[in-house]
Amino acid sequence: MMTKFLRTTSSRYPTLTALYSIGKSVQGRDLWVMVVSSSPYEHMIGKPDVKYVANMHGNEAVGRELMLHLIQYLVNNYNTDPYIKWLLDNTRIHILPSMNPDGFEVAREGQCDGGQGRYNARGFDLNRNFPDYFKQNNKRGQPETDAVKEWTSKIQFVLSGGLHGGALVASYPFDNTPNSRICRSSPLCAVFQSYTSAPSLTPDEDVFKHLSLIYSKNHPTMHKGRACKAGSPSFPDGITNGAAWYPLTGGMQDFNYVWYGCMEITLELSCCKYPPASELPKYWEDNRLSLVKYLAEAHRGVHGFVLDENGNPVEKASLKIKSRDVGFQTTKYGEFWRILLPGIYKLEVYADGFTPKEVDFMVVEQHPTLVNVTLYPSKRQDGFYRPQQQHFYHHHAPPPSKPGSEDSGIFSSLTSGFNNFVNNIFG
Question: Is Oxidoreductase a UniProt keyword of this protein (predicted)?
């Protein structure tokens, strides 16, 4: 049904949509992505790419359905709603409705807590399967996560949201903590840790809190921060730091942020993981405004180009906002973006063969600040180029998967079963 809907929509709106697959699941199902934009087939130079990823836990079905509703809503309103037209004219929106289609196939409607389908067909939790900044993740890489990693490496996404179910909260990085290796092998300690966790804050804490509040404040009930049921946590303003809720290793949002500078948060959108289909219209109405407003935040902060003295783009220049030690890079067109709140900042730019440069700039509330940077070659007195030491800020390559690891799907499920008790309750 989903594939049919995506193909039909793509054929009906060829100037606003493009359908592509980033790979296949364990059982061979396509991982479909729909681009919705006035330029669906080509990158718009100077304009950001953003994404939503839903249903990475196959039994959390609300996000999957919301993505299909969002696609329909955007194409239907492009010619009648000026705000939607502006968004699609200035943004390329990539929507992956189901990262775990195999899990969804075995999930059952009406299962609110737990149930089949959370894991992929090999028994792996895909939101524990990404490289981790704080702790080496030895879980064997899965085709679904490998596809998302490859996808994220090819397109410089500025903003992202991962859609889940089992709670009602916007959760932001970090999900893991520097002391995550302590007690991780003990189920009892993992449960204890989940109730005694401290925040693990990024250098962009202010931005992540703002992004989370954009979503929760535009949702009719999320911002109230109420617990889903007795014994479940409540969240002031409907937001939380991920590690403060419960720490986890190998999460997708930390990977996006640390490896590629993409600002991603996790959106828990329903207390029931797989509610009856009859309730979907209400979930759509509750989340419609938040889903749209969140994507528009990609147009906040600073953007621009890094060029050489001849006006040619400098690809893969390393950039960092001073005092914020998670960096980002330029595209092949020399473009860069960074979501920032109003204030005065300093941009540090480095590239091989060029003299490093620092640029002061101001961010205002009304519109993004354009900053174009020209780099000049670094030469010795004898006229030869002196290559500069390139600065990397957490842009290390993901560690290779270990195909021979003892951490097979079944072993992983057994040893982490008690820890997953917490996950199945909260999302």
Answer: no
Q: What is the tally of structural domains in the chain? A: 1
Q: What is the pLDDT of residues 300-314, one digit of tens each?
A: 999 999 999 999 999
Other beta carbons within 10 Å of 213: 17
Task: Give the structural domain span for 248.
Answer: 2-299+421-426
Which residues does 76 contact at the CB level (< 8 Å), separation at least 6? none
Residue 106 forms part of a structural domain: yes
Please report, for residues 20, 68, 418, the alpha-carbon distance to residue 215 in angstroms, rounded to integers and kept in the order given. 27, 19, 31
Residues near 134 by Cβ (< 8 Å), separated by ≥ 6?
Answer: 174, 176, 177, 178, 180, 249
Which residues touch 11 (CB under 8 Å, ≥6 apart)? Answer: none
Decide if pLDDT at 405 tops 90: no
Instruction: Classify 410 as helix, strand or coil.
Output: helix
Instruction: Provide the whole-model pTM.
Output: 0.87
What are the tokens at 102?
């195999």
**Could you tell me if residue 389 is inside a domain?**
no
* Residues designated catalytic: 268
